[in-house]
Amino acid sequence: MIREGLGQTFWNGLTITGKIEGRGRMIADIPFPDLQELVVEDVDEMAVGHLKKGLLEAHGIDEGGQPEKGIGGHDVMWFVARDLVFGPEAFPDIEPPQGISRAEAGRRWMPQIPQPYEMALSFLMNLLVIEFRAEIGFASTQETLRSEDLFVDKPEEAELAAEIVERIREDERIHVESLRLYIGELRSLHFKTEDGGTALGSEVLDPFWEQLIAWATQQQPRIAAEQQYNVIKERILKHDEGERVLGEFDALADRDFMVAAG
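^ that's the sequence the OP posted. Answer follows.
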């Protein structure tokens, strides 16, 4: 699409990614319960014992910086990468689309423990899925920026943009491994339950994790593919040779997702 002069989709993607990263600043300030009150074992020397002692704050600052101090995070880095190859006003500004909700949203998956803890633990697991999927998407963005037949008038700027994305990816890899550690620790611990007993963390967490992965890897991608395909198709057909470009675009499609996208 960029090769055909249809760079808006890529520009939009960079813009939306930056804005979503900026929203991640809330991780630094999110009210998070003291997990020692939930866990039977002593967590003082474990990562989960330090979530509100700097770990979550550092994660949030990575994402959205400290605007009050003039310090940018990943959000600003995405905008810089975008502007290097397109400029800041190449296309109309865009806001992130509304998230796709699961049909069972609001259901309690961890009724054994108090709801504030369920919300906190489900937040960590959702965040891990988001970070993992983001890393895959960021790799694709980097590959696009380094395609030799694209941005031919700005090769140095495109390479610098790709290097900026690489620095973001380094942070995201740390986020993924950190979240894996937190959840791994929690699965190995025992939780105090509402009925006065205890339960192994894996028994509490795994049912939620299994349905989350099913949604994130099977159901949600198909819905998102359908929505995005229709938007992109409309954009392509406005091109002077829209039918030709659409045919070439469709020829590159993943057949599994074309079932959903029609």
